[in-house]
Amino acid sequence: MLSREDNEIVTRVGPATPMGRTIRMYWVPAVLSSEIAEPDGAPVRVRLLGEDLVAFRDTSGKIGLLDEFCPHRRVSLFFGRNEECGLRCIYHGWKFDTNGQCLAMMNEPEENDFSDKIKATSYPTVELGGIVWAYMGPPSQQPAPPNFAWTRAPETHRHVTKVIEECNWLQALEGGIDTSHAPILHRLISESSTRGGFKPSSPFVRGKAPKLVVDLTDYGYQYAGVRPLGDDEQHVRTYHFILPFHQIRPSRTPSGIYVDAGHIWVPMDDETCMVYNWNYSPGAQGLTEEDRLEAQLGNGPLHVDPKTFRSKANRGNNYLLDRDVQRLESYSGIDGINAQDRALQESMGPIVDRSKEHLGPADKAIIQARKLLRDAVRTVAAGERPPGAGTSYYNLRAGEAVLPREADWRKEVAPDLTPEAILATV
Q1: Nearest CA to 90 among 100, 76, 109, 102?
Q2: pTM for this one?
Q3: For domain 149-425, which architecture applies?
């Protein structure tokens, strides 16, 4: 459990809040590249860390991320004209470049022009892995680019989507890093079911409740769920949590490709987050069109409106829960693994009261994530760069295997995490 005071610290993300200041010290996903793919195309609204912004790609391909509201009379630049290397407000014709510098004032006589003195709030961006990332912290402490292994994969081997989740970012993240719920919530009752989830024959379901091992690192931690399987085997699945809101996990696509996958739980404001979903094939085989549908996960165009990024299964329709499906096919009765996650995480309310929880050993990863986030807040308050803003996460991989009970699972499933990289094991 957390005290109500600590709960406020780790959940609130506005510019003046401790956690808001901390997250701004990292690169934060702002939009998908595809949303502003066309130079001089339509600008898009962006809600990020409690701020209303607008993103656009100018004539030369440069990306701007500005305060949504024109510094003249505070009308929305979403309605602006993206033209000739700048975004022009249609109210009085003030025009801004990608750095926020005012370039022209159509409503002022030439002798009265003071555009050189006007600058809209803007944030630097980098474009990696099909995402436009923003840095919203102090310029002097801007970290290295977020060069995750998946961002460096070719488009043929990489897929990224996003969906709005209507709850605080931290409860969404905690659901994602909670491995003990996966074979329960996402369990299929029928071996023949084609719905998203884990079939009764899978080691995830056949194994007993996991023992969690958390290896603390300078980027966050690696954690493993170690499940006894029968009399002489074990099922091991490793994950990574990279501060402040990234996860890497092993997965397998519908076409049978083994991939690394994960989520990024990005706070839009205190009560809403944008969940970015990614996977990539590190091998020779690229992703198929079937893989990109994400049908079993509930993230693709069959389940999420591609214009609003809102899930078609939502609180208003009880997430399309089907009690007959729940009775005969899947444990939840809700289609899509991540749709199931969103349903239960949103059911906690906009910001869950963690002072009322009763946590156990199976919640070890969640407990450590909260501790790391509070430590990061204290580090930033002391004027230092928080952990996870370096480059040690660049080549991380996750793993999964069924092994003999006596096997060294670290050597078999997590060979890239050297003993020197582990600060402590809890």
Answers
A1: 76
A2: 0.96
A3: Alpha-Beta Complex (3.90)
Give how far the C-alpha of residue 244 lies from the chain's centroid of Cα atoms, to the nearest Å: 10
C-alpha 46/C-alpha 377 separation (Å) is 25
Between CA 43 and CA 82 the distance in angstroms is 7
Q: Do 250 and 236 contact (CB within 8 A), yes or no? A: no
Q: Which residues contact 117 (CB under 8 A, 6 or more apart)?
A: 102
DSSP for 166-192, written as a single string: SS-HHHHHHHHT--TTHHHHTBBS-TT
Cβ count within 10 A of residue 232: 9
Cα(158)–Cα(148) distance, integer angstroms? 12
Instruction: Please name the residues in contact with 147: beta carbons below 8 A apart, sequence gap of 6 or more.
Output: 128, 391, 394
CATH among 1.10.3720.10, 2.102.10.10, 3.90.1150.10, 1.20.210.10 for 27-141: 2.102.10.10
Residue 143 and residue 385: Cα distance in Å, rounded? Answer: 9
Q: Which residues 6+ apart lie within 8 Å of 119 measured at CB?
A: 71, 99, 100, 101, 102
CA gap 362, 225 in Å, rounded: 9
Whole-angstrom distance, CA of residue 208 vs CA of residue 235:
9
Of the candidates 253, 344, 260, 342, the residue with the CA atom closest to the CA atom of residue 292: 253
pLDDT in tens, the chain (426 residues): 799 999 999 999 999 999 999 999 999 999 999 999 999 999 999 999 999 999 999 999 999 999 999 999 999 999 999 999 999 999 999 999 999 999 999 999 999 999 999 999 999 999 999 999 999 999 999 999 999 999 999 999 999 999 999 999 999 999 999 999 999 999 999 898 888 899 999 998 999 999 999 999 999 999 999 999 999 999 999 999 999 999 999 999 999 999 999 999 999 999 999 999 999 999 999 999 999 999 999 999 999 999 999 999 999 999 999 999 999 999 999 999 999 999 999 999 999 999 999 999 999 999 999 999 999 999 999 999 999 999 999 999 999 999 999 999 999 999 889 999 999 999
* E-state strands within 186-291: 211-216, 220-229, 233-242, 246-252, 258-269, 272-280
Residue 389 structure tokens: 């803003």
Count of CA atoms in the C-beta half-sphere (13 A) of 167: 21
What are residue 128's phi and psi, to 5 degrees? Answer: -145, 135
Name the residue ranges covered by the structural domains of the chain: 27-141, 149-425
Report which DSSP code applies to 198.
Answer: B
